[in-house]
């Protein structure tokens, strides 16, 4: 799936706001600087997110942007559709009812779009801002410990002389 730069900025800004978990609005300049995004362009992106109910904007000296909903209530689909409009599977050319290939193609694209919508709706911003699970790091650590246990290192060392002694006899 290819996402536009506009959608990428929208996702990045939404995740920044979710991570900040601030009770006060975050200025566009701060979001732009942290994400290395052009501020003038980001203002347009943030405006779309406000218009589609993802963000709230506050004017004034202490103004800025905040999430309207919690990160576990905002999906990838919400952000993508706020920028690009509804995901659609219609072909630019109408299918004649007697042209079964075009009808089949349109049905296949409709099915793919429905699946994509379901998957994008299931992925919440809260999932995207979580730190990697500790289980993976713990598993790697315990595997390293097993590799360094005396029994394991002895069996590794015991196999090495046999390999060299065979090489000398050959």
In short:
With 170 residues, the chain is mainly α. The protein has eight helices and two strands; from the N terminus they run αααββααααα. It has a two-stranded antiparallel sheet.
Break the fold down into its secondary structure elements and pairings:
Blueprint: H1 5-20, H2 28-35, H3 39-51, E1 55-58, E2 64-67, H4 76-84, H5 100-122, H6 125-128, H7 134-147, H8 150-169
Antiparallel strand pairs: 1-2
Helix pairs in contact: 1-3, 1-4, 2-3
Question: What distinguishing features does this structure have?
Answer:
mainly alpha, 63% helix, two-stranded antiparallel sheet, 170 residues, 8 helices
Structure explained in plain terms:
With 170 residues, this protein is mainly α. It is 63% helix and 5% strand. The chain is built from 8 helices and 2 strands, in the order H-H-H-E-E-H-H-H-H-H. It has helices at residues 5-20, 28-35, 39-51, 76-84, 100-122, 125-128, 134-147, 150-169, and strands at 55-58, 64-67. Strands 1-2 form a two-stranded antiparallel sheet. Strand 1 and strand 2 (64-67) form a beta hairpin. The longest helix has 23 residues, at 100-122. The chain starts with a helix and ends with a helix. Residues 149-170 have low confidence and may be disordered.
